[in-house]
Recover the amino acids of this structure.
């Protein structure tokens, strides 16, 4: 396949290659051509003419929950469903996500074997879906944050056993709950949960296998604990302090900010289907969260895009609102685009996605505007290509 006459956006530098042509074979980019194209090359291939279109790599969301549907209280909706049905639901949400132009997602919590089933269905081509990285059930202290999706473990020995078990089953990364959160009743975002000692053994086990560790950490005590344990990404990071930011810079820890979900919860109407406890807690930390994110951008903390997609009041399509908010809070449009592609790939430890270069997966989007000038691209994506195949 040859996509010709486009303007290719080099997300590494922000440079535009125009006219640019991308040659694809067996799902991979094999060459980028610039300028005049030899007609013999064009004659031999299945050609898509992309005149007037910009091409960027497929977008990456580093934090989603595909078992949920982004409604007011998605967890209660699946409370009485069997895992078999939840797996089918998750697969459908993955397919919808790919159609948005999000070609890689990291799912940060699904019960039992549900995530494995969805990942396998996509791998086998039974359904179209993004590259799906799964944590399976998060490791959580007994009664801790979103324990209904998690595996409960207490003390370093139990956490080590849980970590080894998940790694044996084939998860792509481990998710640890380092603090309380908004969307579980009876806990506070500021209260720490898994201890440093507990998280340390999980990090050891994951790193031994070359896998990353993500920590849900909203309050500062949980953030410090997770950083001491050596996790790779801080998820949410609402109550980050400058001292914690300095440690993140020093340890090269990524922040996955998930800004919009807290704003949306804080703005929910009490008495609606959104649980009142979640609204109350989001209101407590949402303003601080935005302020701290702005500071983290100024200081130079590494940032990768992640939304908590399909959590309460945050359907995955709001990914594009998340990008806008990241820009409004101080990141340049190019920096946001990088956080959504090349840096997101780096945060997840993936070297075959996130940019348009020979050897990488042919996951890419055709857009009718230059995203470095106009980041509001949700309705301007005219084609989604995954592994060299047209999705829409
Ligand atoms: Zn989450």
């Amino acid at each position: 396949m040859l996509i010709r006459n486009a303007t290719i956006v080099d997300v590494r530098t922000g440079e535009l290659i125009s006219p640019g042509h991308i040659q694809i074979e067996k799902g991979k980019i094999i060459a980028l051509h610039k300028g005049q194209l030899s007609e013999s090359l064009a004659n031999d291939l299945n050609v898509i003419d992309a005149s007037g279109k910009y091409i960027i790599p497929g977008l990456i969301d580093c934090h989603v929950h595909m078992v949920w549907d982004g409604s007011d209280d998605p967890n209660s909706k699946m409370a009485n469903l069997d895992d078999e049905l939840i797996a089918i639901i998750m697969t459908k949400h993955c397919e919808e996500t790919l159609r948005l132009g999000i070609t890689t997602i990291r799912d940060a919590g699904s019960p039992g074997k549900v995530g494995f089933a969805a990942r396998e269905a996509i791998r086998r081509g039974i359904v179209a879906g993004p590259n799906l990285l799964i944590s399976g059930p998060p490791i959580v202290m007994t009664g801790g944050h979103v324990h209904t999706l998690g595996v409960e473990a207490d003390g370093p020995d139990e956490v080590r056993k849980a970590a080894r078990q998940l790694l044996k089953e084939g998860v792509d990364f481990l998710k640890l709950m380092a603090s309380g959160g908004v969307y579980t009743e009876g806990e506070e975002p500021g209260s720490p949960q898994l201890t440093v000692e507990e998280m340390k053994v999980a990090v050891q086990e994951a790193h031994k296998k070359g896998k990353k560790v993500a920590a849900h950490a909203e309050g500062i005590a949980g953030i410090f604990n997770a950083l001491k344990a050596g996790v790779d990404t801080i998820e949410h990071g609402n109550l980050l302090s400058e001292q914690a930011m300095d440690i993140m810079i020093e340890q090269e820890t990524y922040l996955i900010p998930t800004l919009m979900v807290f704003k949306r919860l804080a703005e929910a109407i009490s008495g609606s289907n959104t649980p009142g406890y979640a609204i109350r807690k989001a209101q407590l930390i949402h303003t601080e969260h935005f302020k701290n994110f702005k500071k983290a951008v100024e200081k130079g903390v590494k940032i990768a895009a992640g939304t908590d997609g399909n959590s309460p009041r945050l359907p995955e399509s709001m990914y594009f609102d998340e990008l806008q908010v990241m820009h409004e809070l101080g990141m340049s449009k190019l920096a946001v685009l990088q956080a959504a592609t090349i840096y997101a790939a780096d945060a997840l430890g993936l070297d075959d996605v996130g940019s348009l270069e020979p050897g990488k997966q042919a996951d890419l989007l055709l857009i009718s505007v230059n995203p470095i000038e106009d980041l509001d691209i949700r309705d301007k994506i005219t084609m989604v290509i995954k592994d060299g195949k047209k999705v829409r």
The longest strand covers residues 16-25. The chain is about 35% helix and 20% strand. Residues 102 and 119 are 15 Å apart (CA to CA).
